[in-house]
Amino acid sequence: MSQDSAAVPDAARKLAARRRREIVAVLLFSGGPIFESSIPLSVFGIDRQDAGVPRYRLLVCAGEDAPLRTTGGLELSAPYGLEAISRAGTVVVPAWRSITQAPPPAALDALRRAHEEGARIVGLCTGAFVLAAAGLLDGRPATTHWMYAPTLAKRYPSVHVDPRELFVDDGDVLTSAGTAAGIDLCLHIVRTDHGADAANALARRLVVPPRRTASDMGHQRYLDRSLPEEIGADPLAEVVAWALEHLHEQFDVETLAARAYMSRRTFDRRFRSLTGSAPLQWLITQRVLQAQRLLETSDYSVDEVAGRCGFRSPVALRGHFRRQLGASPAAYRAAYRARRPHGAPEPALRPERADRAERPERERAALGASGGDRFAPALAGHGLATAEPGEAGKPQPEGYASRLAEAAVGRGPARPVLPGQRERPVG
Description:
It contains 16 helices and ten strands. The chain has helices at residues 34-45, 105-116, 127-133, 149-155, 180-194, 196-206, 236-245, 253-259, 264-275, 279-297, 302-308, 314-325, 329-339, 351-358, 361-367, 375-379, and strands spanning 20-28, 57-62, 68-69, 75-76, 88-93, 120-123, 141-142, 160-161, 167-169, 173-176. Strand 7 (141-142), helix 4 (149-155) and strand 8 form a beta-alpha-beta unit. Helix 1 (34-45) packs parallel to helix 5 (180-194) and helix 8 (253-259) crosses helix 9.
């Protein structure tokens, strides 16, 4: 679900007299992906007044010395340099070439100066890394491509990163998730500036939905096993790999710490430094992801899914699943199957059910309830505890969606609020 601010926050500054809100500067760098770079150029750089879309003035600015080469080896020539940003009321960084490289200091200075003078600063996809490097995301909620969110949270711990959002509007600083979400954010800017009619008219011209949210059934939230690339060379990589292969077993963070030959405190610190997430929250997320896969690809009951994903009970699964994916397991499965294309194969049956389906009706009746529907009771007392000993009373950690979920359904908000994030209406 995208976050829209109802009003510009108190931190926003009055726009300097020489800056105009309708002037949009797009900051390009060499090595940037061409698709993300083209999004603000198309939204703000084409005159569509005949369709009822107010006109913006576009300034395409080189963020560093030429030549600027984009993906595929194309060479770009930007008509303006960093000096042109001084006229813009909106500055867009559509992408950054590599999350491992530091942006040019001159470009960071130009962004800071623009923000100080009241300009609206926008980072699309990996452009959030440029905004973070300039210090513009400190203490703010933000998002980026889900694959790079752990790295953003690790490198800039004061940024409240939420990879589940399509975009985050924090008033004078806005960020979006990957690729297509950049279109969503640009439409949101048009909607903020000129109203819903103008944004809807532009969406029709672009042939895209006028307003999406991350909870739309056409854009279901999802999780992923991905971790920062640098963990591959770390001794913890073996422990992480073991955990992913044994999610169906009953183990906790203490077990992982022991396998790493570390104390629990050392393991927690080391794991967080590598991933930006607390190990308990990471483990819960992986178990929920496994449950998500089983709900999509099998006909196991919710109780059985809970047992096969290491949760101690179906109640624990339902609570964590709802908090991370915004729906109950049963509702998620129903929605997933409703969206499955016509003619797509049904989920695979469990071996014992497939066997029963092939037996004559009289044999199936003789089997009765003694078939295969008995996994959950045997596993109900095992699995992942939802709170660690000695954790009560400690302040909630910040970073990559790291608030601990509670075990019981209905406790806490269905959509977690990140620590330090401003309360705001949700669009």
